[in-house]
Write a structure and sequence with these properties.
The structure is a homodimer. By secondary structure, chain A is of the alpha/beta class. Helices cover 33% and strands 23% of the residues of chain A. In chain A, helix 6 packs parallel to helix 8.
Chain lengths: 277, 277
């Protein structure tokens, strides 16, 4: 594994790392913030999954999350949103292919070769982080934004033994019924919609649920509300008896200015949930 | 004036505005954060001047300054670092021309036509902001990073009646003696070094000083220390009797991760100084 950069930040270290991934068969880049408390021992860790078109870098430089993470002693991991490179399949659309994995393991040509981000984020990367850095793999949470909120919800509901705390910002919660989802599931998973349920939060919360509180923030001035469908998830949680706090934040949109405004609350949520593990 | 974007952020508004500038003879773009307190009346304002290669955008999205500004009721202005456009002189070097004004009024060909950032930042933009937005022009401070720290120091020492509070991150303080300065002063002001003194903080602090405390943070692992010369400014302040707090921050470099780590202290410094006006 290569350390591409290492900047002191709020008394801790903001790293960017690159490593060959067995899941994707490509080199993968991620950001890792280690709070000052990591110098004294293993700290809990929160994975932040980014949205369409983002790399590992956007949230790392735009959310301001390191301040609160340094204060309360959380490590933060910022994975990339897909495999990348000349040999990796892509599409001209901004919302398919590189930068747009939807955090699943593709089964269809040409995506199946490298697009295995579900395995990468749920299994390979947590194992790597736990082995290489002073983080406590038993106290691990996940959050994300938009497509990354979808990734956080679906991965945590599949692996609650690994991800003990869960939150999301403006997540895509009902991709089977959304223009942010249907095209992508057809491309990555095929046309058989019965295979989509495993990656649709509105279905997963009924089929599996999450054994803890879920915190979701959603701007009510979000320009993509029709794609995100927060009401569908509220209904599904109510019907499934899932404990969820879905906060509709008045006047906020889909931007990083929205995420920055509420990231502290999410990190506090994760810290509290992980402290109880 | 056009509002290019308007995002809710920490209960306030993060605007990006564009207007025709009489100083530069071009359209100029700036970011403006209005804290929630601005809905009830005029608030104090801090100008943040960015460094080489930056636009209005970098500090606006990378420093995380809005959180503290919203808490304590400060407006923030993020000007661009130079005039821009096809009709504006430029240079192939990253540190001369567009994105690299050094915040002075150029007198030399071809720069003199548009490169009048001293007049723009010191006079035109404060007047515009005061006329168009709920900010209190009598409570106005300035800070900046690197070339922008140079801008903050030099502009405030020339206009202490307008900029009542002053701080800087890793400023270029002795440009007459630095590779970040000499080339640029020759290009913009000409070879007569006697004309450079008005834009050299180590000279200005002896000739004029600033009637208040100056706060400076400087990373001791900054890769550009040889260009920045903080020790020269410490000596000049000591000799001139200038009140300054120059904090050498161990392990920090020249990046936005450094600025983000200490921006809250700077905003608190400005709020305290401006509250005493």
């Amino acid at each position: 594994m290569d350390i591409l950069s290492d900047n002191k930040c709020f008394g801790g270290r903001q790293l960017v790392c690159r490593h060959p991934s067995t899941s994707t068969g490509t080199d993968m880049t991620f950001g890792l913030f280690l709070p000052p408390q990591a110098e004294a021992g293993a700290v809990p860790v929160v994975f932040y999954l980014s949205g369409l078109t983002c790399t590992h870098e956007n949230a790392m430089v735009k959310t301001g999350a390191q301040r609160k993470a340094a204060e309360i002693g959380l490590a933060l991991v910022f994975p990339d949103t897909s495999p990348r490179g000349d040999g990796v399949a892509d599409d001209a659309a901004y919302d398919l292919g590189q930068g747009a994995s939807f955090y699943l393991d593709a089964t269809q040509t040409p995506w199946a070769t490298h697009f295995r981000m579900f395995s990468y984020v749920a299994e390979e990367l947590p194992a790597l982080i736990g082995a290489e850095f002073p983080v406590d793999g038993a106290r691990c949470g996940v959050t994300g934004h938009s497509m990354g909120g979808h990734g956080a919800l679906t991965i945590a509901m599949h692996h609650p033994e690994r991800f003990r705390s869960l939150s999301a910002f403006s997540p895509i919660v009902h991709p089977s019924a959304s223009d942010w989802g249907r095209k992508h599931f057809i491309a990555y998973l095929g046309a058989d919609e019965s295979l989509w349920a495993a990656h649709d939060s509105c279905r997963l919360v009924r089929d599996r649920g999450f054994p803890g509180k879920i915190l979701i923030d959603q701007g009510d001035a979000d320009q993509f509300l029709d794609y995100l469908k927060p009401d569908d998830f509220a209904t599904a949680c109510a019907e499934a008896g899932q404990e969820v706090t879905l906060r509709m934040q008045p006047g906020y949109d889909h931007s990083y200015f929205f995420i920055a405004s509420f990231i502290d609350d999410h990190l506090e949520h994760h810290a509290a949930q992980l402290a109880a593990v």
